[in-house]
Give the backbone structure.
Amino acid sequence: MRFCRFGDGRLGVVEGTTLRDVTAALDVLPAYRYPLPSHDPFIANLAQVTARAKLLLASAPAVPAASVPLLSPVANPGKLIAAPVNYQKHLEEVKSDKEINAGNPAHSITIHSAGLFLKANSSLVGPGEGVAVRKPDRRTDHEVELAFVIGREARNVSKRDALSYIAGYTIGLDITIRGSEDRSFRKSPDSYSVLGPWLVTADEIPDPGGLDLQVAVNGTQRQKSNTRYLILGVPELVELASSFYTLYPGDVIFTGTPEGVSPIQPGDEIVASIDRIGSMTVAVRTAEGADAALTGAAATART
Ligand code: MN
């Protein structure tokens, strides 16, 4: 099943080119009061929501999916986890390009040494919200990545059992300012984590290890690879992450980006696609107030 979110907290099921509004399926969610749980309620109750959605589908209002600006399919993840340098050819471009590695040798080590990092939850948007460039005078790159969503609490999970902990898959864009700061800082401005267009439930993707992924900017292909080239695949990432912290339903893991990262700027249109998931279009704009923060020289260069 393909679940999307849109409008004012509405839930949809996408079938082909049609979006059916099944928001009433969220009525099965328990009522929460403070302190709120550490998980995303929709994902934690996905089986119950799915059962109710199936009952609603036949009579659900339908609209063309392409006409609806979509939000992140997960609204309240407990954490956004991301894998750095997890494709060999991307590691090689990081090592060889000073604009990408910012002269920092710590950015050129393998994922086995680097581990994982976290992105701020406040950076999360859906494709319909677009990317707002916060530092127009800094190199800002697209990184297309397979992303997956944890379905049940996971602690010290072996890679053999890992896939059974996954609720579904989605396309991720890990938008990145190049520079010397910690990854968690320069990859966390508002809108720098894009998930969409929808969540494809795990039953539809039995093997996440052979999916083509690509991204185009303004119609020109920039990245193209396959998840078979991941250094740590999806099961290994669940094993590694759950050996350091508990994973909760709704936690998201960005699996890392292949080679071909390149700059984006306001006015660009990003189209990211992954086999068996689909494709999402994301507009790039200037963040409110960002132009005012430019240095005089950079502002002059842009006009
Ligand atoms: Mn990345």
Observations:
- The longest strand covers residues 166-174.
